[in-house]
Amino acid sequence: MRILVLGGTVFLSKATAVEAVRRGHEVVCAARGESGQVPEGAQHVAVDRNVGLGPLEGSHFDAVVDVAKMSVTWVRQALRSVTTDHWTFVSSCSVYADHSTPGTTATLDPLEDDPDAPPSPDRYGAVKVASENAVLDAVGDRAFILRAGLITGPGDPSDRFGYWPNRLSQGGRVAVPDATDQPAQHIDVRDLAAWIVDAAEQRTTGTYDAIGPANPLFMVLGEIAGAVAPQGTELVRIPEPVLQQHEVAPWVGPRSLPLWLPSTHRSMMFRDAGPALAAGLRVRPTSDTALDSLEYERGLGLDRTRRAGLPPEVEDALLNAVG
Q1: Which of 85, 94, 206, 302 is most buried by a 10 A CB count?
Q2: Threshold 0.85, pTM exceeds
């Protein structure tokens, strides 16, 4: 098959290109090439999506994979520029309007691009809705739309999941959120990439929540600890009022506890993985993702400044606060 990956230099798009090359497909990666190199064995075509697809205009591919993060303009332009038998668009679970109630499926109202609008999770989700609609309008029943949840594994630029194998591998007393009622779920980038290539080969279509099964957060952290933590490591539950008093943010940020969610978003990691699993998604154990993420963390430097996680002095203050 001849597969076009719009991207191919970082994280999911690169993992998809790697998997497609591994299976012997002819892979074309359309990217500026400023964020990294395309995988060995793939062809790089330099394009700037702010301008267009340049030399690819009018081309036909057996399958196209688009991971456009927040630009329905890019999505529409790509749909006009090339033709294909199968179109994968990677959307997000952020498209849902309600993250507090399990099982809700209503989405946000679609929004057009507005470079002057302040960034926000709702705006991100609403632009993704508009992008999904653009794909469905253009290719109809040839569309494979993936509403991805938390994507994890080697190459993750967010620093979220990787914080936990990094910190737990260092042992000692580890501050964790006391959120026993919160579920957590993720999808390893390599498993999602493999499913994308499977779908292109098998012409799988439809809209799915692309995520692994949900488990209690403390169980997920325990599985990570079981894979990477030295003997004697203690997970110390920090009550939410204490986290708030110390201005610890949920989810992401330089003073945060990744995977912890506020009560208004507890169902964001409680999507139904059943349809995706039934359609061929295969997921590896969280422990395997933790081990490989730790290797990636070590390559970057365990003590680097992070985009997500607790600085040591903040964690020490939390641990001292609960005794």
Answers
A1: 94
A2: yes
